[in-house]
Amino acid sequence: MQLVDDVEPAPAARVAPRFIAVLTLAYVGAFIAFVPLLSLLTPMQAEALAPADKIGLLSLVSLWGAVTASLTNLAAGWASDRTRVRFGRRRPWILCGLVGVLLAYGLIARASTPVGLLAGVMAFQFAFNLLFAPLHAIFADLVPHEQKGQVAAFIGIAAPMGAASGVLIAAPFLSDIPTRLIVLGLLVAFCILPLLLVWKEAPPARLRKKAVALASPQGKGRNLDFGFVWASRFCFQISASVVSAYMLFYLADHARYAEQFPGSTVESGLARLIAFSTLLTLAAGFAGGLISDRFGRRKPFILLAAALLAGGLLIFAFYPQWPGPLLGYVFYGLGFGLYTTVDTALVAQILPSRRHTARDLGLMNLTNTLPAILAPVLAIAALGPDRSDWSMLMIVSAGVALLGGLAVAGVRMAR
């Protein structure tokens, strides 16, 4: 059986520029919350606490953090779908998650042992997903199909802005990790609070219990499309997780960044590379969202994104000497920006049920968290016993990205 709410049409009213602005800013805050933490500060903490096995500790922390994120996102999405309070069903969870993220930063700042770092990152993943599951559902709740590419183009700014914030967090004048986490917390609160204060969420309507027969071809088609898009994003995110978690060590151990640029730290070099690719990511994502709306097509852009992202990874594999890493980030940034924007629009367009938006997005979010579990396993296996075969890791990651592009070809209810 299928509930009436599941077969109602998607929202038809266009969303206003003011709403797009505060939603975009909140997305930026969400990505600032985790990107510099997991790509810069956590690896730095791992190296400080376990210099002899920094990759092993980072992989362990990433693994259990991802498990925590997966379970919490599903639970928070399910709970926010069913929340019935006068402040709305999404806003209370976003506020609780924001408070929890700030408290988790304090735990990570005080971590003095590997166990302390593990506990801090798991606490962060719990709190962050209390925030992100309902935040992500707002886009699918309110944005009509014909505006999804446009709004996705704006909120697509969030991922590169989160990456670019690493430039500030890695700045030399922020001398230690606790200070950097304080700055991070202020930035996150500044970005997310306007949505909570400005956007007035309508109280949710009472759930209707009337059911209708459900074996419709459209319902089955949406479930199948959901599976293809899930598989596509899963592959993409495995490749992205490898880059996010291990590029600091790639630059240090394989590209020998410090030897090529004496006087410059590896973390500052990585931050500058990310900042440069961010400009390309922004341009590619914004253009992809608008053009995909204009032509009413999503799949060709995702196939192009897969080719670009895989090309960047292959450059990392075969040309570690400068300017190889720079060129690799050009291709990677273009592919990542194009993919994240168009995929966001596609996912919201093919969700099986409007009544269970956050729950279904929680299932889709497993494509973000499960790859974070598998990426450390992939890295350890591909790098070999001496943790040095970086070319193999990048080649395998490129192949996985191409599989992600091919998977989306199976989608039938969106072009």
Automatic annotation (TrEMBL):
InterPro entries: MFS, MFS_dom, MFS_trans_sf, Sugar_transporter_CS
Membrane topology listed for this record: Multi-pass membrane protein
Pfam families assigned to the protein according to its UniProt record, in alphabetical order: MFS_1 (PF07690)
PROSITE patterns: MFS (PS50850), SUGAR_TRANSPORT_1 (PS00216)
Major facilitator superfamily (MFS) profile domain boundaries: 225-415
Chain segments annotated as coiled-coil in the UniProt record: none
Annotated compartments: Membrane
Protein biosynthesis in keyword set: no
The keyword Transit peptide appears for this protein: no
Main location (coarse class): membrane
Record protein name field: MFS family permease
